[in-house]
Amino acid sequence: MSASTFEELVCLIGPKIKRFPSRPDIISVGEILTATLRFLASGESMMSITYGFRIGKATISKLILQCCEVLWDTLNQKVLVVPDTFKWAQLAVDFERIWQVPNCIGSIDGKHIIHQAFANSGSEHYNYKGSHSIILLAMCDANYNFTLVDIGAAGRCSDGGVFSSSEMGKGFIHNDLNFPADKEIHEHSGPIPYYALGDEAFPLLSNLMRPYPGRGKRKLPLKESIFNYRLSRGRRTIENTFGLMASKWRIFRKPIIAGHKTVNAITKAAVVLHNFVKLSENNAGVRYYSGTLDTEQSNQWEPQGALEPVHRLGTNTYTADAKAIRDKLKDYFSAEGATLFQYERLINL
């Protein structure tokens, strides 16, 4: 984060966290924000921050919680506004230009935010991997910016219930996210809805595409293999977005030791800070990512400490309309929308 971005952040949140002094050694806004950013960016414990800033343990824990909540409240409406119909159309243009996937408005995935067991929580947040977590369900655009997020579902939630019970999932299921009207992707395709890309964990909907089943278990027909590759290539954006966030905010490199309210606030703050810093500093951080974002590498994301992938989030049932749309895209990727690299990639598998 540059000095100018930090100063802008101080000006934005300062009035909400400013402490009115009754003594001369009161903690300034800059110190509160610096301590919070240090905690998020370094992954150090609160005790380490306490010693580094010479602030009491009880005080620093309250200040970090307050600052994270203010960051979310302040930046949420600035860098994470739910797109309108015109904005969705712009995102689809960018996605087709960069990733060669038409009518796509983004990619979606979920991650477990691993944390120390909360006091008196029992098995409420105990997940199938044997750890305690909350779930971050997120969608991003072609440039690794979060567009929609749902934060806070308990890690023990049933696989099929996470997506369907989230506000984002309800928006997809009921088709009320203000996506643009259906548009042809070529002259013989007929109108095709705008859609997001998901992996096998998500249900197949008319506005949410997932791969054909059987990948890795049997030899798929060529057209289905091409569709799965092109979908996975575009869906890699959300994996890279999570990777960028975990690389910049290293609090997610290991289980978070904090209370329930603080873990939720930390996750929310990291999401909006990710967007804010990238937008303020012209996609800063992408060039420092310790992986190859745009090359034809494996699509599997490496779990990083407190960020672990979720598995099934929906059922295998789907409508005839959703199947027809997927089949149209499958034919498009093997005909009018074919690219040279897709065949080179499949040959090398």
UniProtKB/TrEMBL annotation:
Cofactor entry: a divalent metal cation
Keywords: Hydrolase, Metal-binding, Nuclease, Nucleus
One cellular component (GO) term of this entry: nucleus
Entry's Gene Ontology molecular function annotations: hydrolase activity; metal ion binding; nuclease activity
Keyword Disulfide bond part of the UniProt annotation: no
Keyword Nucleus: yes
Compartments, record wording: Nucleus
Organism domain of life: Eukaryota
All residue ranges annotated as the DDE Tnp4 domain in the record: 108-275
Family (UniProt): Belongs to the HARBI1 family.
Full protein name: DDE Tnp4 domain-containing protein
